[in-house]
């Protein structure tokens, strides 16, 4: 079971109050998690990554095992602690401004 933590605004959109748990077959990658998340919660399609290119949206960051994975290859295997459910895969709404 993969654990996913969403920012507040995406949790509200998905109508979830806590972290989401997903069953994923195969290698645990960003792409696999996002594909499963969008399949389970279609209202999130296009909010985390672009509909056509599937690239991460600006101001969205991905964290796994305390490391920023936002610029890692989408098919790179995530750390074992995420794959075995010990730690969550975190999707964070980045802050910007001046």
List its salient traits:
98 residues; alpha+beta; five-stranded mixed beta sheet; globular
What does this protein look like?
The chain has a five-stranded mixed β-sheet with strand order 2-1-5-3-4. The N and C termini lie far apart (39 Å). It is built from three helices and five strands. With 98 residues, it is an alpha+beta fold. The mean pLDDT is 94. It has one domain: Roll (Ubiquitin-like (UB roll)), CATH 3.10.20.30.
Tell me the distance between the termini: 39 Å
- Would you list the SSEs in sequence order as H and E? EHEHEEHE
| Averaged pLDDT | 94
Give the CATH architecture: Roll
Percentage of residues assigned to helices: 10-25%
Quick structural summary:
Helix content is 22%, strand content 19%. It has 98 residues and is an alpha+beta fold.
List the topology elements.
Elements: E1 2-5, H1 8-14, E2 20-22, H2 30-40, E3 60-64, E4 67-68, H3 80-83, E5 89-93
Parallel strand pairs: 1-5
Antiparallel strand pairs: 1-2, 3-4, 3-5
């Amino acid at each position: 079971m993969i654990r996913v933590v969403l920012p507040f605004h995406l949790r509200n959109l998905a109508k979830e109050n806590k972290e989401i748990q997903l069953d994923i077959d195969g290698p645990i990658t960003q792409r696999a998690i996002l594909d499963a998340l969008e399949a389970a919660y279609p209202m999130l399609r296009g909010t985390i990554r672009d509909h056509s290119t599937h690239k991460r949206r600006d101001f969205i960051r991905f964290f796994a095992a305390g490391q920023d994975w936002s610029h890692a290859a989408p098919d790179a295997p995530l750390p074992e602690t995420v794959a075995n459910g010990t730690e969550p895969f975190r999707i964070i709404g980045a802050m910007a401004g001046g």
